[in-house]
Amino acid sequence: MKVNLITLHRVLNYGSVLQAYATYKALESINVEKLELLDYYREKDYDDIRINHYGSYRTRNEHGLSKKCKSFLYDLMLKKSILKFYKVCDSFLRNNVNLSSQKYYSENDLLQNASVCDIVCVGSDQVWNNIHNEGIEWPFFLRFCDEGTRKISFSSSLGIENPEKEYAEVLYSELKKFDKISVREKQTQQLLSSAGIESEFIIDPTLLHEKHEWKKMIRPRMIKEKYLLIYQFGNSKEINRVAKKVSKEKGLKIVNIVFHPHQVIGRPGKKIVVPTVEEFLNLLYYSDFVITNSFHGTAFSINFEKEFVVILRKNFNIRMKSILETLDLENRIYIKEHEREIINDTINYDLVRKELDNKRKDAINWLKEVFLNEENS
Fold first, then answer.
1. Could you state, in order of their start, the residue ranges of all structural domains in the chain?
2. Taking CA 178 as the corner, what is the angle to CA 177 and CA 184, rounded to the nearest 5 degrees?
3. Is the fold of 3-48+85-209+358-372 the same as that of 212-346?
4. What is the mean pLDDT of residues 10-28?
5. How crowded is the C-beta side of 33, counted as CA atoms within 13 Å?
């Protein structure tokens, strides 16, 4: 049986790379043979060719010598960090999954070269989020498959609560052509159900991969002192303020993961610029407290049994809300009026671990039933 997997693995983002790895490992764990991750790039994704284009964006759009010089220096710095991040993500994927030798840049590329297989599986991550993807990513609806190929979704994410009517119609129409669907948010499951589409709620694959399995990738701790870790998208003043407060109250050093050199300005603590994927895991694993606005920052905090606080963003929050609700951890969402309790209350991980184990069993049983035609055990 040949299985092709397609997902958002080329986003320069630790969560995207790690979910791709964990999805691959979940399929591998049930003994799926001839498994390949299709090396598909959206138009907005980076590779070693496109970095030259993105790394000169500001210079090309500025007027006047002074502004062009400043923008050139900014672009040069940005290009170097993008290239480093690309190499970090690319190296991790090539060393840990069976990545297709061919790169695919369009649905037509996939149609011509990746259509022949027994099963095509899409997921996990925000493959159906048309806002995050800046439009509809048709390859994630598996239209390139040969007739007779089974279409499966594994823990796929919509990432938005209320898709616009026009996109919702596309979503429902395409997903009705799938053989089996599982999704990462309960809200998405309910939305599909309202359209007559059956789906299973499955936790994110990074949570299927247990703590002791991730530990195999983690070397001795990088930071000697006890520390609070900030992992965020953007630069939230609220996150920075809460981090300083927690740091002072608990006597923890602040460590801040950043993606580009210019982001070291205006952020508290020791900055770690573009760590490797293994170093990213290391920083989370050995932390004493985590403050994040990231879904995978949240997922790994739970998996590594950390004290943590989630500060919601303006959008794309249903992923975090769903997993926190599933594990009865909604009280980890930051509310200023309850700041003291959120910071000082400890998490009962005995209860979390029990529920997480049940969800892992549900996911593996679903995978075996769908891919291997085995009844739930």
1. 3-48+85-209+358-372, 212-346
2. 135
3. yes
4. 96
5. 2
Superfamily of domain 212-346: Glycogen Phosphorylase B; (3.40.50.2000)
Q: Say yes or no to pLDDT of 60 above 80.
A: no
- Backbone phi, then psi, for 249, in 5-degree steps? -70, -35
Q: What pLDDT score was predicted for residue 82?
A: 85
Report the amino acid identity of residue 132.
H
Q: The tokens of 236 are what? A: 């939230």
Which DSSP helix (H) or strand (E) runs through 94?
A: helix 65-96
pLDDT band at 112 (very low <50, low <70, confident <90, very high): very high
Neighbour tally for 48: CB within 10 Å: 10
Q: Dihedrals φ, ψ of 363, to 5°?
A: -65, -45
CA distance 228 to 247: 7
Name the 3-class secondary structure at 109. helix
DSSP 338: G
Q: Please give the backbone phi and psi of residue 34, each rounded to the nearest 5 degrees, phi first.
A: 50, 55
> How much is the average pLDDT of 317-321?
91
User: Rounded to whole angstroms, how far apart are CA atoms 3 and 151?
Assistant: 10
Could you please state the CATH topology (level 3) that the domain comprising 3-48+85-209+358-372 is classified under.
Answer: Rossmann fold (3.40.50)
- Residue 59: pLDDT band with limits 50, 70, 90: very low
- The Cα 290–Cα 296 span in angstroms is 12
- What pTM did the predictor assign? 0.92
**Cα–Cα–Cα angle for 209, 215, 220, rounded to 5 degrees:** 160
- Which residue in this structure is represented by tokens 């949240």? 298
Question: What residues contact 19, with CB distance under 8 A and at least 6 apart?
Answer: 7, 8, 124, 125, 204, 205, 206, 296
